[in-house]
Amino acid sequence: MNFHTRKWIKPEDLNPNGTLFGGSLLRWIDEEAAIYSIVQLGNPRVVTKFISEINFVSSAQSGDIIELGITATEFGNTSITLRCEVRNKITRKSILTIEKMVFVNVNEEGKPVAHGKTAITYIKDQFLN
């Protein structure tokens, strides 16, 4: 799994307990997963279809740096399935895992459309022309 996005936890990201607010983390994950899907499918129109159980393993506090890891696990006809892990950048301690996130490739009308992809496209391979 590649960890590309990093977030610095600031006071405005905290809940009343003084730890990272789960809603903020889920927003960041959904955005990162959508961007990953857009890049993999080559279409700026993807929608979140499904997110499996979210397992909060530990938390983060103000000043922590976390990193979000996403990888494709399956390609459907119109969908892409992802796995996500969030961890503390310094300690590598896991904060959250999501085993299954499904995004659907859609057209201008918002209807599912085949994407023709079957494997992960790596950045280094996108520029070999």
User: What fold name goes in the CATH topology slot?
Assistant: Thiol Ester Dehydrase, Chain A
**Would you identify the regions where 5 or more consecutive residues have pLDDT less than 50?**
none
Residues in β-strands, percent = 35-45%
H-E order: EHEEEEEH
The average pLDDT is 93
Number of domains: 1
Find the count of extended strands (DSSP E, 2+ residues). 6
CATH superfamily: Hotdog Thioesterase
The CATH architecture can be given as Roll
Based on secondary structure, the structural category is alpha+beta
Q: Count the DSSP helices.
A: 2
Rg, Cα atoms, Å? 16 Å
Helix percentage range: 10-25%
Distance linking N and C termini: 26 Å
CATH class descriptor name: Alpha Beta
Main β sheet profile: 6 strands, antiparallel
Shape: elongated
Describe this structure in words.
A hairpin with a 3-residue loop joins β4 and β5. The chain starts with a strand and ends with a helix. It has 2 helices and 6 strands. 24% of the residues are buried. It has 129 residues and is α+β, with helices and mostly antiparallel strands. The protein has helices at residues 22-41, 123-126, and strands spanning 2-8, 46-51, 54-56, 65-75, 79-88, 94-105. It has one domain: Hotdog Thioesterase (Thiol Ester Dehydrase, Chain A, Roll), CATH 3.10.129. Helices cover 19% and strands 38% of the residues.
